[in-house]
Design brief:
homodimer; 505 residues; mainly alpha; Neurolysin, domain 3; 2 domains; three-stranded mixed β-sheet; globular; zinc (chains A, B); zinc ion binding (chains A, B); metallocarboxypeptidase activity (chains A, B); protease (chains A, B); hydrolase (chains A, B)
Chain lengths: 505, 505
């Protein structure tokens, strides 16, 4: 590397590190708001989040950043960098191009508003008061529409949002993939509906002590390899994973007294996200490459650990005894087979995060269609409860009795995360496709699970996916790992086979 | 106000609000490091704290700040402001003058080092490994010495540090006040040593369940008026109060299984700090006036609630029944009189935070003398354990068996807080002097305590002290409230009278 390049590169990395420090502070403030920050401090806190997010934004769009990029992003200079360096320049350039189009005052308003709305959402969800929440959501949508204009709409306005979470994903592609998936899953759902022997699991809904739920949750997280010296587990309304820095990858969970599986699977789910983040190569620390590559690939990992590992028969052959020890009264007369069938029963339900592996995708398709309506057809926010309830009736045959169990159930929109929901279904499809390759390359896969030996699985995923962070694009990951593009058939195959076994179809 | 002044004033307040947002973020990161942040993230976190503290520091010393101050701090312009406005300009000018002398790179090193050292201190305290901690402490002392040079030494080098925590306090004055206090207290300590009937309280050191300790702690905090919607209580090695913003004033406590009084009195102590911060006038929010005026006055409030309220006979006449209900087994045969005498027994001990009201001041004098030796006589850090142990032998007749129970016991030095310790003794003296006035003006004081009716007491303190925040200097507060300067006789009178009663002297 020439001396001039070496100096620019060092200063460029320092600037990125400074930006990362704002993100760490803002992430901690968000985490804190959701894990017990006092109510009366929330308004000033929102303002503080807005101010510091704006500072980070100013650095990302600063003249200094522009100058670094215009120096570094030249063929001859890129040739002096290694592959990771080139990826970093490319990614920062993309973010710069995107950010520089948003006026800082707009960005600050957006940051303050979404921080505030996320806090308010907890109350409005609790009371089911959509009308109270509507003005905030209306303003968030309006600002997002303005952002789309600043960025320039793609094929459709909503494509612009999709691309933020899953680079290069389009409405056209998603309509096709979701269509194919739906066509293959509907017959399975129908067959289950008319199956003669449906698993029943009233034992899952007895009273399960919260402290015992905590204990088994921590135990299972330790088992799959979540590093508690580089993370912690707290309780929130809506579980999430948040990375403060490479040695501080936190997750949260939600304890439901009469549903023991809720916290177990949310721990395995968020734990899957965390395994990804905890195992990104340390060399990428302090740069934007140091995180999962896309929301879809991220979700593939949470789903992999939650469903492909955590809802498998082998997993419970190994751990059901431990669970029984934590809840001897509740589970003494329940066999592992009954338990396995119980946690995999299919039921149309109102709440996305409680849905089974099969119907979950319908919850996503509903949100995807509503988001398309908002951004491509101008559906007003005031209409959301009505449209939401109609779609739940049409797709799942259910009508939410109130907005707490309907349109207010998810935190995403209050944080401005439009275009995020499809990642969940992508995650399912990626997970199945990756699991297929994993089983071919590690034929002992099921045996490892049955032994509680997750290290080889975690290592394989680290080598193939985790360590790269954002230095490979999602499409590259999928192609490198599985040898083909995203293919929804793997998920359909997996679900067909699994539910044939459980429902004796 | 002229239009030009009005515009400058608005921008000046916005700049102060931005600086406050950095302080809120940094405070939250400190709080988080001590309340369970994962170990592996601590190094990156320290760097982040350093980076953001440096940004705040740059704003405080920025050209923009210099220009605001040179405009506002003119006789004619000050005349356009109200009294609070003038105080704000004065305070910001003082902080500017102090900060502008420190090179930003030095400040950043100091911020990163102290953040890192505070985390390390927990480990070194645990293991008693002073040699391991020594290099960090040596560097902190060296940087502090450099800062003294930048600021310019006062009468002595240590005076410069004292002034930071208690404006206008000097070694000369403190030597006098501490001398007088010691002369009056030593005879009381001697009389107690030879008293025929000493209270015994083995019942305090049974096993007290932590969850029950938490419950009674929260109950008592609610009773004295700590607002849980504007704060929260967590567990740390060393209890503290920290203000994130006016609606977010947090405290921490430490539960000792075989000493029930430890968490109770640390809650009342930190709760006293918090009552001060929670009741500063809302009009001062977002400015540096929005906090307690000095460490000494702050400590007077923690001591007032801990000792003058919490260790009084009246308080336990009211609350002993509640305590017994939380610990029926442990306290069933203990009378309120035995309990009251038990919590007020005097014993020479090794640990400052566990010391009784009487000998506590000796712990402070030891630290005061050592800090003077470090900064005025160049005592090397490597000598600290030896000097510490010698002084404990001389003043309290005890030799720490290890450095965990000796020189490593307090967090202050690892955070660079040299000159802070004297505030604790000042707090005791201020508290006694203020309590004397309070009893004259609210003759029902003791009755209010016996009824558990703390609102009139909190209101009196709010009106006289809390609401002003930093808009009055400590000497003004004491003069306004009590009509005279700091006078150690009030503390001596109070302690004499109290211990004569308890020990039948």
């Amino acid at each position: 590397m020439k001396q001039e390049t070496a100096e620019k590169w060092k200063s460029f990395l320092e600037l990125l590190r400074k930006i990362a420090s704002y993100h760490e502070a803002v992430s901690l403030m968000h985490w804190d708001l959701r894990t017990g920050a006092p109510r009366k401090g929330a308004e000033a806190r929102s303002e503080t989040i807005g101010l510091l997010s704006t500072e980070a934004f100013k650095l990302q769009t600063s003249t200094a950043m522009g100058e670094f990029l215009s120096y570094l992003n030249h063929q001859t200079v890129l040739g002096e960098l290694d592959e990771t360096g080139r990826r970093l320049v490319q990614l920062v350039q993309e973010e710069y191009d995107r950010s520089v189009k948003i006026p800082p005052a707009k960005f600050q308003e957006y940051a303050e508003l979404t921080a505030h709305a996320e806090t308010l959402w907890e109350d409005y969800k609790e009371s089911g008061d959509f009308a109270g929440f509507e003005p905030y959501l209306t303003r968030i949508v309006a600002l997002t529409q303005e952002f789309i204009d600043y960025w320039g709409p793609k094929e459709t306005r909503y494509d612009t949002l999709l691309d933020m979470y899953e680079p290069d994903l389009t409405v056209e592609k998603l309509d096709q993939v979701f269509g194919k998936l739906r066509d293959r899953l509907v017959p399975v759902v129908d067959a289950i509906t008319s199956a003669p022997h449906k698993p029943q699991a009233p034992f899952l809904n007895q009273l399960y002590d919260k402290e015992q739920q905590k204990k088994i949750g921590i135990f299972l997280l330790e088992q799959i390899g979540y590093d508690f010296e580089a993370g912690r587990v707290d309780e929130t309304v809506h579980p999430f994973e948040i990375t403060l820095n490479q040695g501080d990858v936190r997750i949260t969970t939600h304890y439901v007294q009469d549903d023991v599986t809720n916290s177990i699977f949310s721990n395995l789910h968020e734990g899957g996200h965390a395994l990804y983040e905890q195992n990104v190569s340390k060399e990428l620390a302090g740069t934007p490459l140091s995180q999962g590559t896309s929301m879809g690939i991220h979700e593939s990992q949470s789903r992999f650990w939650e469903n492909f590992v955590g809802r498998s028969r082998d997993f419970w052959e190994r751990y059901y005894g431990d669970l029984q020890q934590h809840f001897p009264e509740q589970l003494k007369d329940v066999t592992v087979d009954e338990f396995y069938r119980g946690i995999n029963r299919v039921e149309n339900s109102l709440i996305r995060i409680d849905a089974d592996e099969l119907t979950y995708n319908l919850h996503i398709i509903i949100r995807y269609e509503i988001e398309k309506m908002i951004f491509n057809e101008g559906l007003p926010v005031s209409e959301l409860p009505k449209v939401w309830n109609e779609k739940y009736k049409a797709y799942l045959g259910l009508t939410p009795p109130n907005d707490s169990l309907g349109v207010l159930q998810d935190v995403h929109w209050s944080g401005g995360s439009f275009g995020y929901f499809p990642s969940y279904a992508l995650g399912n499809m990626y997970a199945a496709q990756i699991a297929n390759t994993l089983k071919n390359e590690l034929p002992q896969f099921e045996g490892f699970i049955a032994e509680g030996n997750f290290a080889p699985i975690k290592e394989w995923l680290t080598e193939k996916i985790y360590k790269y962070g954002k230095s490979l694009k999602p499409a590259e990951i999928i192609m490198n790992v599985t040898g083909e593009e995203l293919n929804p058939d793997y998920l359909a195959d997996y679900l067909e086979q699994k539910y044939k076994g459980i429902y004796g179809l």
